[in-house]
Fold this protein.
Amino acid sequence: MTRRGLVLFGLMSFIWGIPYLFIRVAVEEISPSVLVLGRTAIAAAILMPIALLRVDLRPILARWRWVVAFTAVEIAVPWVMLGAAEQHISSSLAGLLIAGVPLVGAMIALATGGADRFGRTGLVGLLIGFAGVAAIVGGDLGSADPVAFLEIAIVVVGYAVGPAILARRLGGLSSIGIMAVSLALSALIYVPIAAVQWPTTMPSSNVIWAVVILATICTAAAFLVFAALIDEIGPVRATVITYVNPGVAAVLGVVVLREAFTASMAIGFALVILGSVLATRRPAAMAAEPAALAESPAESTATAAYP
């Protein structure tokens, strides 16, 4: 990997590891819907002009049904669910549980006709990974709201389904155009919802800064940096950040917010990472496919979760 690639990789690992911390800070004073509105509106205001200058949005709008579906499962629903969950569980725990996204993605591939990608190693990986999830949850089950775990489960499924829609139904379209339209659509959806739940008093500066950072750095800038990372090292290696982000989230939660980090969480996270690597590893026959297919632009954002 080049020096530029290493810098971009480290930057993305950090940028998509910090949202859990700032979400936790924000939802202490504002509702998850207000947070989502602020984050999507600001990010859309940044990305939409860039998209309009670079991209013809008409092909994207022509597939509006799938754009709406992607928006719902990747942004509109998961982001509000994640905010609601972090009102009751730590940012560290939320980040570690999100590490299960590759496992659910592998299950979706298996259930929708991708069984040829799975051998014994893949199935063993799924079992190991879900054992890790059980260990993470089990270490905090007694002190956390069970509803929060259900909300995180919705987030994980959404983050796994969204990439499948990108790859299979929105392939060949500009990813920056899709994200700009999706963020703008999400903002419009949350205007009336957030209006009902608008805070009666001005949030603290910490919360305001948390929303601004989530929108500008963790969303708009993150997407542009991730696109640069893909151009530099390719989509396959770029997705390794999926395994690093939760660790960053856990460390920040412990160091900054003084959250608890148990031995079962550490063991569970290690099992989830091991299981994810095994479950998503391409069999030898698949690995022999042409490099052009492996580096397909349609797949470049297909494994990215937007926390």
About this structure: The two ends are 26 Å apart (CA to CA). The chain has a mean pLDDT of 85. The chain has one domain: 3-299. The chain has 17 helices and no strands.
